Amino acid sequence: MADRTRYLLAYDIRHPRRLRRVHRVATDFGEPLQYSVFICDLTRVELIALRQKLLEEIKSTEDSIGIFDLGAPATRGVECIEFLGIRRDLPTDDPAIW
């Protein structure tokens, strides 16, 4: 199995049509934590594909996307996330794209 890294993906998209398209791409690569916040366990190749697909959908002068490296899914990728209120269970074994 290829090495995977857990990423937090968050976006602020200004136009409803682009927002729907970016949301669709994010759903293909990760699990939603909030409407515009996703957790993604990706290989390096998958990360490159995600970036490319997102760049195809946004208007870089208006929209913003953050991709944050959280580390290995079974270690820091779980430990560095804290929930207040309703807790989301994050996978800790056999990380994959959901």
Quick structural overview:
This protein has helices spanning 16-29, 44-57, 76-79, and strands at 5-12, 31-34, 37-42, 64-71. By secondary structure, it is an alpha+beta fold.
Count up the domains.
1
Q: Can you name the CATH architecture? A: 2-Layer Sandwich
Low-confidence runs (pLDDT<50, min 5 residues)? Answer: none
Helical residue percent?
25-40%
CATH topology: Alpha-Beta Plaits
Topology:
Layout: E1 5-12, H1 16-29, E2 31-34, E3 37-42, H2 44-57, E4 64-71, H3 76-79
Antiparallel strand pairs: 1-3, 1-4, 2-3
Helix pairs in contact: 1-2
Account of the protein in words:
- This protein is α+β, with helices and mostly antiparallel strands and 98 residues long.
- Helices cover 33% and strands 27% of the residues.
- It has a single domain, classed as Alpha-Beta Plaits, CATH 3.30.70.240.
- It is built from 3 helices and 4 strands.
- Strands 2-3-1-4 form a 4-stranded antiparallel β-sheet.
- The longest helix is centred in the N-terminal third of the chain and has 14 residues, at 16-29.
- The chain is globular.
